[in-house]
From TrEMBL:
Pfam families xref list: PapC_C (PF13953), PapC_N (PF13954), Usher (PF00577)
Family (UniProt): Belongs to the fimbrial export usher family.
Species this protein is from: Pseudomonas rustica
Places the protein is found: Cell outer membrane
Keyword presence, Transmembrane: yes
Name recorded for this polypeptide: Fimbrial biogenesis outer membrane usher protein
Top-rank taxon: Bacteria
Amino acid sequence: MTDLYRLHSAVGKHFAVRKKRLQTAVLQALTLLIGGASGAVFAGTEPADVTFDSTFLQGYGQNLDLSRYARAGMVPAGEYRLQVTVNGKDQMSQTVRVVAAGKNASRFCFRAADVERWGVRVNKLPDQEQVAKTLASDCVEVQALIPGASFRMDMASLQGDLSIPQAYAGRVRRGYVDPSEWDSGVTAGFVTYNANAFENQNSVGDDSSSFSLGVNSGFNIADWRLRHNGNFNYDDDAGSTYSATNSYAQHDVSSMKAQFTLGEYFTPGDSFDSVPFTGVQLASDDSMLPESERGFAPIVRGIADTNAKVTIRQAGRIIHEVTVAPGAFVIDDLYATGYAGDLDVTVTEADGRQKTFTVAFASVVQMLRPGSSRFSLTVGRYRDDNLDDQLRFTQGTYRRGISNLLTLYGGGILAEDYGSLITGAAVGTPIGAIAFDASFSRASGLPQITTDEGSGDSSGRSYRISYSKLIDETRTNFALAAYRFSSEGYLGLSTFAHLHEGDPTQAYLERNRFQVSVSQPMGEVGDFYVNGVSSSYWDGRADSTTYQVGYSKSFNWGSLSVSAGREFQDDESNDTYLLSLSVPLGSGSRRPTLSTTASYDGDNNSTVRTNVTGTAGERNQANYGVYASRSSSDDDSTHSYGGNVQYRSSIAQVGASVSRGEDFTQYTGSASGTVVAHSGGIVFSPEQGETMALIEARGAGGASVANGQGNALDDDGQALTAGLVPYRNNNVGINPKGLPVDVELENTQQQVAPRRGAIVRLDYPTIIGKPLLLQLDNNADVPFGAQVVDADGKQIALVGQGGLIFVRGEHQGLKAVWGEDSGQSCLLLFDPATGAEDQLYQQVDATCVHG
């Protein structure tokens, strides 16, 4: 059996292989056989013509026209997804469109958005009028746009190397996706649901049953997202009730990197406390920014004497490396890395000399990159179903990054009988990042309040300070330490709204609040942490303090964690101690895990619970668990046990559990998933998420969504995958395993950048038909490597060794072509019915008729 025969057999056994890649592989094999060049193809250079001697193909292709291999620019026309490297350092995934340019050449077409991602200094290019025309066209060629630039495409690895002269090379925007590539999706409606049913049987009381259904629903039309969220509940005592959470319409404002919201929503919580409202809001959306421009990271500035390499490390790990030209350099596209410590910068010159310096890096949530800003503006009514009079208010906030060390922010709220202002600054210091702000409020029309200012009037202030620091020497991480003091007359908007209507039960007059979170890694010893919060109030509520200390460590045989916590409520305290041990059972990726948890509350009340959990199924689509528990106190002890199972099918995730104790038995059932209705029908999915992709591959029912854990294409060849990241390139793929034998996917993966909340549609072309392996008659003079084209002249296959041709589906008028002369083509005649029907593919005889 020849190599090509084995290749085609493998294709049949695996049911689906991209035909374009098969043809490329044969082309490359042919090129190697005839002593050809590598699979690399260049644009922007003029490779010399070469002549191949067909006698190296003795017995296979002496009559074959090899002129198409005479130039390195020979690439079949079509679209290719490549991993493009810019000037040998920055990588990105891009699509290049290859267009035939004459008999033996190709053009490599990019888009204007691709040029922006490369960081090209367009304003520095000569002939700006011609530059504008080129960028406006549907085929931007590298060498036509940028003098001295070149593009290299490697067919074998589907990679591209782009070289841009230093004079025109700017900063590559890492993670940037041009807004023109953001996909708004299709017109569609959806419902995401979580349903739970409970049946309780009690030996000492009445039996009861209950049901709950949470729904997140929406409809997308003309770039608008209409949303409604709510909950339905039923139980034997209260009957059925439905509670609407919110309903709103939302639209991207791409030019401002913001969201416009109309309806019932929530204000941002970065400056003032977040409150529900009914009205309109325009607010910044960080997710529209590239990852290299989100959050806070300092700008690194320095001077290089030569073409130098700049290496930036954090905690000893390289987080960024770039080559810079001689002179001053600025690096302002570091990814936000949280609270991970100072940056160590090393400048390695061309002659090997090194210079090092440190850039302080500590951040609190209020900090922004220098020159960046965030804003929000809300106009509406305070939303609370318990209030008869919904308070009208207007709120605005603004933050601005001034430098590496300073961010300023402020805002205000204006309502009837109420006003509030906030102003603050976040500062980076050698001892950590500190944010300090002051809020002021003034209110009137509150009859239940009497102060020195008069009856019904109240004014006050609130001060807040936050701190964050990673101590490099000890790796102690103060992830958050904050203290807030409010005077007795200070009122937040929510508190004022309830007092204004005479409802003091929902008004919380907080006086002091302190919270802290500290973690301390100890290397091989383990990790320690401390978390705590303490609050006191002006209105007579009991002071409260809660804190917890803990330790955890992973071993070769499992993991161990212990913690101790205490809760103070006035003079009373409650202690809790917890020990948890987890050990895998057996070996392999699906081995179950045994976990034991023991707790003790300090009042001789203790509980010991043991669980065994695991996964099952070819795609880990099933989860199971069993447990046993024992609780004891001074004079009593109880036991309970139970089990649960969840299964992720192609339409929903369902689960069931049972728990049994000495006096009760509880049964539960659950179901969750998403239903989407669109112009092509209704699709079910076990996945949930705001941003989704609708996959359509005609006839491909049975294939699964890549990494879908049970999510498979239905009988119509449709599937829904959720949880896509908005405004980012997401890879969405199909695993062809499980395809019908007569279906082939032309493409198994696509990349899409959806807008927030969009339902994007991805069509995967398929070829449907019984796979055929044609065996040419021994007397046929068709050479190895000849093209096989259909009646429209479209190439669908190549002639392999031994006269074998692999095709799929029904094709009319197939011809073999190996040159332009009249005698260098023939019509293929064969009868598919002569093949064995019980095989994965049919092997049939074929003849080639000239004329």
